[in-house]
Design a protein that fits this description.
mainly alpha; ABC transporter-associated protein EcsC; about 0% strand; about 75% helix; EcsC; about 240 residues
């Protein structure tokens, strides 16, 4: 391995331990409170939200693959990381601008931020997958993208379960169903909403909505980009027989 790859392997091991960490006291308390709130919401509302997010994600997933080109020239890990970091910076700026604009527009534009931000996030993940040499035209690679999405925006308990499903992905993906409708959409949407609800609520407040929207979106994209980077480093390490 090169010196850069050795450093990245050390960072990867630290990240993997973090993903495997069990929920702490405050995390469990926060999750318990959120679950109680969710139990108060009528089941029909949960079903409607699940269907809406499912169709929204599906539309972005199957639309983005036609606007994301597969990488033709194989790059080293370091070269790929450099390109990925540039992409993350671009998408962070875009998401921050979008958050500021919708946050300044009051309640209705603030609500529009939800689908717009999802589209930005999924498109970034498609770009990153292509940079690391994975074909986004492959259905199973698009499922992996959904796992990365969950890994970035879930409670510690759910995150740990998702991470375990991602280990040795090339082998695990062979048993995936071919129909994306069989994907577990309910926990996907609920974990995502629970994760961002508190952060995004302030975006709907007049005056402070714009700066809050910009900062929150910036941080969400930064976290998603780093999570994706580590997830594909794990794939790289597995291919090299290092984990």
């Amino acid at each position: 391995m090169t010196t850069y790859e050795q450093i990245m392997m050390q960072e990867l091991r630290i990240w993997q331990r973090k993903m495997m960490r069990k929920p702490g006291f405050f995390n469990r308390l926060s999750k318990s409170m959120q679950d109680k709130i969710n139990n108060l919401i009528p089941e029909k509302v949960h079903q409607v939200v699940t269907v809406v997010i499912k169709q929204m994600i599906r539309g972005v997933l199957f639309g983005a693959k036609w606007t994301t080109r597969d990488k033709k020239t194989l790059l080293t890990l370091g070269e790929s990381d450099d390109v990925v970091e540039q992409k993350i910076k671009i998408y962070r700026t875009t998401a921050a601008a979008e958050g500021a604009l919708t946050g300044a527009g009051g309640l209705w534009l603030g609500l529009a931020d939800f689908p717009l931000l999802i589209a930005i996030k999924i498109k970034l993940l498609f770009e990153i997958a292509a940079i690391y040499g994975f074909s986004v035209n492959d259905y199973k690679e698009r499922v992996y993208i959904l796992y990365i999405f969950q890994l970035a925006f879930s409670s510690a308990k759910h995150r740990r379960n998702v991470f375990l499903e991602m280990i040795n992905w090339d082998e695990r993906s062979k048993s995936l169903p071919e129909d994306i409708n069989q994907f577990e959409w309910r926990p996907f949407q609920q974990e995502y909403r629970d994760y961002i609800d508190l952060a995004k609520m302030a975006q709907l407040i007049p005056v402070i909505g714009a700066p809050v929207g910009a900062v929150v979106n910036y941080r969400l994209i930064r976290k998603l980009g780093y999570t994706a980077k580590m997830a594909y480093h794990m794939r790289w390490a597995e291919e090299q027989g290092l984990v």
